[in-house]
Amino acid sequence: MIELKTTQQARDFIQGDNFQPAAYRDLDLTDFTKEILDRDFGASLFLGCELEGEAICHLAQGGAYLIHDMDGFSFPVHRARLYTPEELFHGLEMDRLSSRYDTLDHKIFEEYLQSGREQGDSIKVTLARRLHDHSITQALYPELEGREVAAIMGGHGLERASAEYRKVAQIARRLTAEGFLLVSGGGPGAMEACHLGAFFATRSEDVMLEAIDAMSIRPENGKPGKEYADEDWLHRAWRVRQDYPVPQGDEEKCKSIGIPTWTYGHEPPAVFATHIAKYFANSVREDGLLLIATHGVIFAPGSAGTIQEIFQDACQNHYLVAEGQCSPMILLGRDYWTRTKPVWSLLSKLAEEQPYGELLCLTDSIDTVVRRLLCYRPDLYTFS
Questions:
Q1: Rounded to whole angstroms, what are the CA distances from 175 to 149, 258, 353, 383?
Q2: pLDDT digits over 292-302, tens only?
Q3: Which residues pair with residue 152 across a beta bridge?
Q4: Which pTM does this prediction carry?
Q5: Which residues pair with 256 in a beta bridge?
Q6: Quick one: which of 136, 256, 264, 279 could link to 182 by a disulfide (CB 3.0–4.6 Å)?
Q7: Pick from 51, 21, 293: which is nearest to 151 by CA?
């Protein structure tokens, strides 16, 4: 079933020769009453659309499904597009640090806590969240079409001043410049570094490192491993966005998608992601994020969450969940993944005699990471 996301698309479709049941999402159709009354829409879907009463009666009598938006929530239940940083951080004032708590993103998080975290305190809350997440997934996949998608996963505690943060940003910058679409969990630390690298894809590495230096100075009371909790964390990043805007015309070349969750809403989303697919259900977000990374996943140092993602990705590769395809898994940080968190030995043992075993890599080298992904041939690792 075709999905229509703009009023012009809807008008052309309704007036066209190939008219048939379709899905209309998040559209103001109050001016379409005459066109609607002249057609039989059958089992079409109208999700969060504005309609006049006469049109609603006509559609309902004809068998269409109408699911209206729900009042009483800070978030829109039906969305036709992904979030932007400007939308989620609306309300941020650069001269007032406490304004981070006035942003749309934080308001939705507070509402999430007050109405019950995972399950919600009513069926209305639960349904609204599920419908929201469904619309995010529907908006996400068109952004991936025709792109070689790679993911960078890693710890939220990676500090901006660290060598590891810079390495992740350098990798992301080079891969984006090579045409990859970078995705991540959309939070702070290694995830932010991923999107910052993509954000600077059309500029020099020196300019990017200069920008990292500009936002790496922490308050004296900053806690190690929790830079995202610094009162000025968001403002430092936003100021870099303002001082180093994406060059006009390079927007698509610097594109990246952050995929965070309000489950970890105390961690602000990465402001350098150009598109943000934010979910309520972390399980849907986590599995889906790894599933779309069809051209490889890079795992920077991280703790429990990153280790879970390593074996979740291994499971997808092991059982060829992604339409019969397995893809590269690169563990960045030889000492970290063999000594600090000795995941490598188990992972490599698990992959023995499996096709994805050839796609495992343990390295400290930026060049090796980039070369591995550039050399990957999906057709050689797709099985019926």
A1: 10, 16, 29, 26
A2: 999 999 999 99
A3: 298
A4: 0.95
A5: 182
A6: 256
A7: 293
* Residue found under tokens 């640090």: 97
Structure tokens at 287: 């599995």
Alpha carbon dihedral 10, 51, 64, 38, in 10-degree steps, equals: -70
In this structure, which amino acid lies at residue 93? E
CA 359, CA 294: separation in Å to the nearest integer? 12
CA 248 to chain centre: 23
For residue 191, which of 210, 173, 165 has the smallest C-alpha distance?
A: 165
Query: What CATH class is the domain 147-381?
Result: alpha beta
* Amino acid (one-letter) located at 7: T
Collapsed DSSP state (helix, strand, coil) of residue 218: coil
Task: Provide the residue count of the chain.
Answer: 384
Q: How is residue 13 written in tokens?
A: 């479709």
Mention every residue, 6+ apart, whose C-beta is less than 8 A from residue 49.
24, 25, 26, 27, 28, 29, 66, 68
Label the pairing between strands 360-363 and 329-332: parallel
| pLDDT (tens digit per residue) in 23-68 | 999 999 999 999 999 999 999 999 999 999 999 999 999 999 999 9
Write out the two tokens for 23. Answer: 């899905």
What amino acid occupies position 21? P
**What are the structural domain ranges in the chain?**
19-67, 147-381
